[in-house]
Amino acid sequence: MKKAFYHQTELYAMTNKRLSVKQYILIAGTLFGMFFGAGNLIFPVHLGQLAGSNMLPAVVGYIATAVGIPILGVAAIGSTHSDGLQALASKVGRRYSYIFTALLYLTIGPFFAIPRCATVSFTIGFAPLLNDRVSESKALFMFSLLFFALVLFFSLKPGNITLWIGKFINPIFLLFLAILLVTALLGSDASIAAIEPDISYQNHAFFHAFAEGYGTMDAIAGLAFGIIVIDIIRGMGITDDNIIAKDVLRSGILTGILMSLIYVLTILMGVRSRALFDISENGGIALTQISSHFLGTYGNIILALTILFACLKTSIGLVTSCSEAFHRMFPKRLSYRAWAIGFTAFSFAISNVGLSAIIRYAIPVLMLIYPPCITLIILALCGKPFHHNKMVYIIVTIFTWAASLFDFFKTLPAEIQLLFHLDQAVEMAEKVLPLFNLNLGWLLPSCIGLIIGLILRRQIPQK
Whole-angstrom Cα distance, residue 75 to residue 247? Predict the structure, then answer.
């Protein structure tokens, strides 16, 4: 009797265990570290330069997609008690879950996001330090080789991800970032009201910034990183799914607060830089100008280290999550180690294509898959009233994909649009789809799909 009693008491303690404040902070720090890469610095500082005195609506719009939706994505994985994106996407269909999960992970993994991490850190952080006698292509090759060797080293030990990212790399990154932000903000007293917005941000600043947040890829990453956060929490001894769901949400909220704070400061830095510089071609150039102006000869070194650690920790998180996901989807094909090596090697090869080419083709793909990601997150979080009915998921997903195709066409390179006569489809979408020019043409079709799905749910008997 005593043994049974002690066994039940021990079991109760395990299933009702709670995370400590220190553990919450560690998980939130790890999640932040995986989210916050170089793009999370480049986009907001450039956004600040463009928004000028319209900074406030731009900040709200940017944080909605760069913070709100990613954190909701993590929360959606937790609240639905899913083991990952594939389980969540299976609410639409089993085959769809495999296709959608593979497409999403490949997009934020070896096809675009991971190679971009290496090329961004090289282009912004280290290329300016090269002299004329060094070949930039050879330098990129050597840099990316060392970069991905480090990524692979850390990724092959996924159980230590909170140690590598949360305890070591993340604090170093935040230290260098703090030096840059504090120096730039204290060194400038420019009035925000006096900074004239760029013509693109004089009207509808919220919506332009909302679409700009797509570039971070974080809404997609939120769905992808959910699997890692859940594994971390389980590794800390939490076994109850309801408690895990709450812990995921709380950790996500802490992460969102930290990300929002840094975004506001970075956008403000970009706005104030307009008193010193013209609007730059991109955020990388802006960061280089700002760091050099306020930190002198040490500016480029501090910026290089900031960007390097930002990209390194994000790449580790992406390789780890991609490898975990494909290993779980195809357990009999390759081991986690094999997937990690394969994704890292492929990312290394793509990174040497160059940053411009990666960004050029990444944007159309993001415009295509972001809307289905957003609607999947919303349906997962708000699905209780219709009992997560499969019909609703299917109809909304079909309508969303159909509409997002036109955003995909619109952002393809001009020569491809002309070759396949896609410009005519874009012109039609501009006339038919409300908010299409604001990159929200999918919104109304998704709402229509939701209404139709709810009606069909009532009309068709449930099995």
Answer: 9
Contact yes or no for 453/391 (Cβ under 8 A): yes
Q: How far apart are CA 315 and CA 305, in angstroms?
A: 15
The whole-angstrom separation of Cα 83 and Cα 88 is 8
Sequence-ordered list of residues with C-beta below 8 angstroms from that of 157, at least 6 positions apart, any chain: 164
Confidence of residue 5 (pLDDT cuts 50, 70, 90): very low
What would the DSSP string read from start to end of 351-385? HTT-HHHHHHHHHHHHHHHHHHHHHHHHHHHS-GG
The pLDDT value recorded for residue 208 is 86
Lowest-pLDDT choice from 105-114, 308-317, 350-359: 350-359
Q: Which positions ≥6 away from 361 have C-beta within 8 Å?
A: 112, 413
Sign of CA dihedral 91, 93, 99, 103: negative
pTM (2 d.p.): 0.81
Interval 5-20 mean pLDDT: 52
The pair of three-digit structure tokens given for residue 163, joined into one six-digit string: 């140690």
Q: Label residues 243-271 b or e (16+ Cβ within 10 Å = b).
A: bbbbbbbbbbebbbebbbebbbbbbbbbb
CB 160 within 8 A of CB 326: no
